[in-house]
Amino acid sequence: MESKLEKRYGLITAIAMVIGIVIGSGVFFKAEKVLTATGGNLTLGILAWVIGGIIMISCAYTFAVMATKYQYVNGVVDYAEATLGKKYAYYVGWFMALIYYPTLTSVLAWVSARYTCVLLGFSITGGECMTIAGLYLIASFALNSLSPILAGKFQVSTTIIKLIPLALMAVIGTVVGVGNGMIAYNFTTVVKEVNTSNALFTAVVATAFAYEGWIIATSINAELKDAKKNLPLALVGGTFVIMIIYILYYVGLAGAVTNKVMMAGGEAGAKLAFQTVFSSVGGSLLFVFVIISCLGTLNGLMLGCTRGIYSLAARNIGPKPDVFKQVDNVTNMPTNSSVFGLLLCGIWLLYFYGANLTKPWFGFFSFDSSELPIVTIYALYIPIFVMMMKKEKDLNSFKRFIAPIISLAGCVFMIIAACFSHKMEVVAYLIVFAVVMIFGAAFSKEKIAE
């Protein structure tokens, strides 16, 4: 008898799950870049968070409509297959396995190590930081491979912990900043004059990293009561709350230290902000919570990374399906896929260091692997939205046309913003992307039947 997932989640629980899935290390990591990109212009920075949030909300709603249409479809690969067929889904899955998951996982290992080094007083660009990043990668891999149950419990615990510094800084930092005039000063003082349009594009692309993850939340549709009504509400409501939390945290930081100090100090500036508001001991403790939050996000990404090539092998496509779809009888982990995922993470971590943290090793082929893969995901959404408008004739006008068109506009904006922000780096990235996808095509021939 086929078992079915129980409809056990209500709207409030679903909203909480969306918030827990999306909120992670990105806001800690990118708040500094948004501020720096806008020259310390808080109003422009908040506008960037709003635009990035609106793009996230609109895309989340459109995918929510698809999730309720394809009741048991989970993940962007399956949405690609439902709308455009197996071949397009294969290439999306190949990109996710070889670029998307390992690049973001490696960056998160470095971010976690970076904050650890700030706490311990080590250099954030030296050998200590990269050594800790490598150890974090291996530890996360080991946790997921040897004890998936413990990894799951760790994920739940960090979901709770990561909200603490955000909420406290958002509320108390803002109250303190209003009281001592720091927020008023930061809102009226621009540290550096910048080109407004270029600054806004750069800042919006930076927010994409913090907002990423909402697509995973569509997977709860099969367990949600009255999913056709509640999933769109949960995704829109949850993503809207996330945008508000991020903006309030951004303002809270402005209530603790000047924009100039924050821009000059980076992670050290964030630590100083926490210590200014919550005292030296309290600030350091909350900074530990920030590190735990980063490790929680790393754990979640490693979970996806270890299953990247397995998701293709399970469909009997990609390289050596019989090898990569093997699952350990004890841990229920795809062992070979996990090892391959860790190898890719190590390669991309080395690339990130050589391209972004030292004198570029790769010359023209150096690009920011923390942002451009995310923009690629938005580009891959475009054909899905177009086919949704073409195929889903039973939907009303808003769901079939208006919502997807708004989402399409957001995706196009994100692509244009990336081109203005990263300029020739986009060309370098596209060349690398093309090589990886051509390599993937070699494994797709005569294996996919539409």
Automatic annotation (TrEMBL):
Keywords: Membrane, Transmembrane, Transmembrane helix. It is a multi-pass membrane protein. One of its GO terms (cellular component) is membrane. The keyword Nucleotide-binding does not apply. The keyword Transmembrane helix applies. It is found in: Membrane. One of its GO terms (molecular function) is L-amino acid transmembrane transporter activity. Its main location: membrane. The chain crosses the membrane at residues 9-29, 41-67, 88-111, 163-187, 199-220, 232-252, 272-298, 335-352, 372-389, 401-420, 426-444. This is Putative aminoacid transporter. It comes from Clostridium ljungdahlii (strain ATCC 55383 / DSM 13528 / PETC). The lineage of its organism: Bacteria, Bacillati, Bacillota, Clostridia, Eubacteriales. The gene is steT.
